[in-house]
Inverse folding.
């Protein structure tokens, strides 16, 4: 199949999943065309089945905000005609599903029928998409997609609750490439670079937005380090990073916390880790938690959104109510203070993550693509 993938090219979960999906589809022999405003951060162009097409948005003084949706829909039309693309797969409802719909209409007038699969990832539904300014366009775009998928059952339920949706939504969970995520711990995982032998290493990875509840991460770690020698690794960047650094200073734990910023070496960082913290306000799925589990790192998370579908209570970690710092700290200390229990949780985390291996999930997308193409062949 010749498939166009439209996504945000950033470190966010939707962009990462879309990129990894395209890479795996290319390995399976499909011709994949990424169409976005810059090269996705995890995109490798070494496979001859991978193509990247940049969307240029001309700047005119007339426009206060540059019309990306117009540029994207026009680019989609041009690329479909030039490369014979058979299917559009758009990730994130805003603005990609809307632009995809406009491209479909323009192509139809030129005698080209092309199906569109829309994957909902989270804040495109629960936060941005639910804003009154965007809600009608989001509902319209979803209802006019040929097939709609969501990354968790919880997100599917939210979509039906928040929008007037008249079509079926299929749940296809996020995934991870287990073999790629695991590194050789004997030769590549130099734990001594980060901490002493007696220190436990706790990690958090996110885009440092308010929804991630970064102060809760710091407060949980603060309780942990009171009970045992420990280091905290904070990976990512965003508006909450500077306040987090200030909170560490205020609590007197700055010497025990490392702020990495954005990193392309997530697997190497996770291989050092004993525990992963994700106390978010909401997570449509919890890809960061899954990445940790695939590296054999147990997770302490909130019990919101799709997280209970990923982090299995008492098996791969524990879940607490949003904002319940004391409970999450208690469970973190419980795992970290007993080496035998820590080993058991690490093994379980890896085992649970294998349910979401790329080889299990990508065939579900291929089945959806075949279904969409069959619908348009009628």
């Amino acid at each position: 199949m010749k498939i166009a993938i439209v996504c945000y090219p950033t470190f966010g979960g939707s962009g990462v999943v879309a990129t990894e999906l395209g890479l795996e589809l290319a390995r399976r022999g499909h011709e994949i065309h990424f169409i976005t405003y810059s090269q996705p951060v995890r995109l490798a162009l070494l496979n001859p089945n991978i193509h990247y097409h940049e969307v240029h948005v001309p700047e005119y003084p007339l426009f206060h905000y540059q019309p990306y949706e117009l540029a994207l829909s026009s680019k989609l039309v041009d690329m479909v005609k030039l490369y014979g693309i058979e299917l559009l797969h758009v990730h994130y409802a805003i603005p990609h599903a809307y632009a995809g719909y406009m491209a479909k209409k323009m192509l139809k007038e030129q005698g080209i029928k092309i199906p569109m699969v829309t994957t909902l990832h989270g804040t495109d539904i629960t936060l941005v998409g639910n804003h009154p300014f965007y809600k009608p366009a989001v509902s319209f775009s979803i209802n006019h997609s040929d097939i709609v998928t969501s990354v968790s059952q919880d997100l599917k339920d939210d979509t039906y609750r928040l929008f007037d949706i008249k079509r079926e939504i299929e749940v296809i969970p996020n995934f991870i490439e287990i073999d790629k995520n695991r590194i050789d711990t004997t030769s590549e995982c130099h734990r001594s670079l980060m901490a002493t032998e007696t220190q436990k290493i706790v990690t958090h990875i996110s885009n440092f937005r308010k929804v991630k509840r970064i102060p809760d991460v710091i407060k949980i770690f603060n309780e942990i380090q009171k009970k045992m020698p420990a280091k905290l690794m904070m990976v990512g960047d965003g508006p909450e990073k500077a306040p987090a650094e200030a909170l560490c200073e205020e609590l007197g734990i700055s010497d025990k916390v490392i702020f990495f910023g954005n990193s392309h070496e997530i697997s190497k960082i996770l291989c050092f880790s004993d525990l992963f913290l994700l106390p978010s306000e909401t997570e449509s799925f919890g890809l960061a938690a899954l990445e940790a589990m695939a590296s054999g790192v147990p997770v302490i998370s909130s019990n919101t959104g799709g997280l209970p579908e990923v982090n299995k209570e008492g098996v791969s970690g524990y879940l607490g109510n949003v904002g319940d710092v004391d409970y999450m700290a208690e469970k973190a200390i419980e795992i970290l203070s007993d080496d035998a229990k820590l080993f058991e949780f690490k093994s379980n985390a890896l085992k649970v993550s294998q349910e979401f291996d790329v080889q299990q999930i990508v065939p579900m997308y291929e089945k959806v693509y075949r279904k969409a193409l069959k619908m348009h062949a009628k």
Observations:
- The chain has 15 helices and 13 strands.
- The mean pLDDT is 89.
